[in-house]
UniProtKB/TrEMBL annotation:
Domain annotation Mycothiol-dependent maleylpyruvate isomerase metal-binding: ranges: 14-148
Keywords per UniProt: Isomerase
Annotated protein name in UniProt: Maleylpyruvate isomerase family mycothiol-dependent enzyme
Span of domain MDMPI C-terminal: 156-235
Entry's Gene Ontology molecular function annotations: isomerase activity
Gene3D superfamilies reported in the protein's UniProt record: 3.30.1050.20, dinb family like domain
Length: 239
């Protein structure tokens, strides 16, 4: 049975604390350095996380009040906000990030238990339950913490997050026609996941390493392939 959204608030809070501890002493020159994301500096990543948190606070407000508040006005507006924020000084960026994340935690902790299934309008226009805001923000925080290139690796991602996100990623891959045929085997007897019919190679390793590779955050060099050879070419992953 899937855990209720409120059950993800404690791990989200811990992940937020770890992220803020990593960035609190960033200098103006350090935030202008490249992140692991193409064409984005660390400042872009910090602003992206902050606006992602604000967008989910907006969805919680919509669910509780009935107001027609979309997650973002548009893709273009989201990009404009990120570019504008990326020019700010480090101290301003970190304060903005902390404020946005803390506001979400406060509102989510106070969200009525019966209102997590209220449909709200996510980016792209789809209507989905607001309960997805908690888990998806955890994904934003953990994955983009790694994208900052400050030492936070997939091996540092919370186990609870890795288990859920690996299952979600495999499910998405199974629906993609461009996914390669392979079997993902989680070390430690935690199960295997067939993708693309499962007729391809067996890719084995710890769950976090598998997820890190599938998400494009690591090269998968710690994984093993049977029969020996190169890792399959997986399609781009989006957080």
């Amino acid at each position: 049975m899937r855990e209720p959204p409120a059950a993800w608030l404690p791990p989200l809070g811990r992940s937020i604390d770890q992220l803020l501890a990593s960035v609190e002493r960033l200098t103006d020159s350090e935030v202008r350095e490249p992140s692991l994301l193409p064409e984005w500096t660390r400042a872009h990543v910090l602003t992206h996380i902050a606006r992602a948190a604000d967008s989910r606070t907006r969805l919680l407000t919509a669910a509780r009040t009935g107001a027609q508040l979309p997650q973002y006005l548009s893709e273009e507006e989201r990009s404009r906000q990120i570019e504008a924020g990326a020019r700010l000084p480090a101290a301003v960026l970190v304060d903005d990030l902390e404020g946005a994340l803390r506001r979400f935690l406060v509102m989510a902790a106070d969200h009525p238990a019966g209102a997590w299934k209220v449909p709200v309008r996510w980016l792209g226009g789809s209507l989905r339950p607001v309960g997805g805001a908690v888990g998806s923000l955890l994904r934003e925080v953990e994955v983009h913490h790694t994208d900052l290139d400050m030492g936070h690796r997939p091996a540092d991602w919370p186990e609870q997050f890795v288990v859920r996100e690996l299952a979600t990623t495999v499910d998405r891959l199974r629906r993609r026609p461009d996914a390669p045929a392979m079997v993902l085997h989680v070390a430690g007897g935690a199960g295997a996941h067939a993708v693309g019919g499962g007729a391809g190679p067996r890719v084995s390793g710890p769950a976090a390493e598998l997820l890190g590779w599938l998400s494009g955050r690591i090269d998968g060099s710690a994984l093993s392939v049977d029969p020996p050879g190169r890792l399959p070419q997986v399609p781009p992953w989006r957080s």
